[in-house]
Amino acid sequence: VQLVESGGGLVQTGGSLRLSCVASGDTFTIFRMGWYRQAPGKQRELVAAITSGEGDTDYADSVKGRFTISRDNAMNTVYLQMNNLKPEDTAVYYCNADWSNIDDPTRSWGPGTQVTVSS
Q1: What number is the average pLDDT over the span 75-99?
Q2: 102, pLDDT greater than 90
Q3: Which DSSP category does 56 fall into?
Q4: Fewer beta carbons within 10 angstroms: which end of the chain, N or C?
C-alpha cells in the first residue's frame, strides 16, 4: 500500500484546513487508517484514526471537537478536517495505513504534508 497526502499549508489561528490521503495498491487489505503529526523536536503522535467496516474513530485529546477524520467506503481515501486551528497544531502531518494481517499488520506511511498555523 502506498500513500500520498495533500492539503497542507499556512493558515491563521482559528482557520481550517482539510487534508486528504489517497491509498493505492492492495487497499482491500487496509483495516485502519490514521493521521499522525510530528512537530520539530517532538515525537510523532497519533492525531486521529478510523477503521474499515464500522468506521470506528479515535482522536487525540488535544484535537477532540476540532478535527474530524472520515473515509470513503473503499478505504481508498481518508480525510482530516481541521477546524479552529491553533499554533500548537503546527507540524508535519503523516498519513498511515495498517494492512494485510490484522494480527501482524504491515504499516505504510505517506511522505507527509506541512501544516503551519500562524498566531
Answers
A1: 96
A2: no
A3: -
A4: C
Q: 34, 50 in Cβ contact below 8 A?
A: yes
Find cell 464500522 and name the residue.
54
Look up residue 96 and give its amino acid. N
Q: Is the pLDDT of residue 37 over 90?
A: yes
Residue 119's CB is within 10 A of a number of other CB atoms, namely 8
Q: Are 6 and 99 in contact (CB under 8 A)?
A: no
Q: Which of 108, 81, 92 is nearest to 23 (CA)?
A: 108
* Distance from chain centroid for Cα 113: 10
Contact call for residues 82 and 115 (beta carbons, < 8 A): yes
* b/e code 84-112 from CB counts within 10 Å (16+ = b): ebeeebbbbbbbbbbbbeeeeeeebebeb
CA torsion 39-108-78-6 (nearest 10°) is: 60
The confidence score (pLDDT) of residue 74 equals: 76
